[in-house]
Design brief:
single chain, 177 residues, alpha+beta, PF0523-like, 8 helices, 4 strands, 20% strand, globular
């Protein structure tokens, strides 16, 4: 994901956009992003806690399926996505762990909605922010995620997928209730 991408997941459309920014008012920033279009669900997280595009798409698929089945962890899909990405069922812990903080941030914006609305958000973000690839997985990010989620070497070695951390975190998210 170099800049931003609109993707189709089943019958739904999602947009992922990354940026590096300095934030002085996290609540104000999130309110301003959500005010772009009130017909979409928007979540903004610290991209350092996303194990690549594969991880985020797995979580989005889980949340969309849970919405369809009536089994979401929250009443709002953007909160369900937050909880699953953080691998917890506690909103305050999820915000503490993967929410944006004042200061420098690698920000991942996740938007769910109709394609025309997603395109509006995409245009706004491209016009007002310098978009960048914040989902790239690195050794440093892998160490951070392994340490934060207490993923041991044995668990990593037992995983057969290429992005082992993404697979492990998606599996843990799927087991939440």
């Amino acid at each position: 994901m170099n800049r931003s991408a609109i993707l189709k997941l089943g019958s739904e459309h999602v947009m992922l956009a990354g940026m590096k920014l300095r934030i002085t008012d996290t609540d104000g920033f999130i309110r301003s992003i959500r005010a772009i279009n009130n017909r979409v669900a928007i979540q903004a997280i610290d991209a350092n806690f996303a194990a690549g595009k594969e991880h985020v798409l797995s979580i989005l698929q889980q949340s969309l399926q849970a919405k369809k089945n009536g089994t979401m962890l929250s009443k709002r899909i953007e909160i369900d996505v937050l909880l699953r990405l953080a691998c917890t069922n506690q909103i305050s812990k999820a915000l503490d762990d993967i929410g944006l903080k004042n200061g420098s941030n690698n920000v991942l914006i996740i938007v769910i909605g109709k394609i025309a609305d997603l395109q509006d958000v995409q245009k706004y973000l491209a016009k007002n922010y310098k978009l960048s690839n914040v989902l790239k997985i690195s050794a440093k990010k892998t160490r951070l995620l392994s340490s934060h989620h207490k993923i041991g070497r044995e668990e990593i070695n037992a995983c057969i997928n290429n992005n082992k951390i993404a697979s492990i975190l998606a599996e843990r998210a799927n087991l939440l209730w």
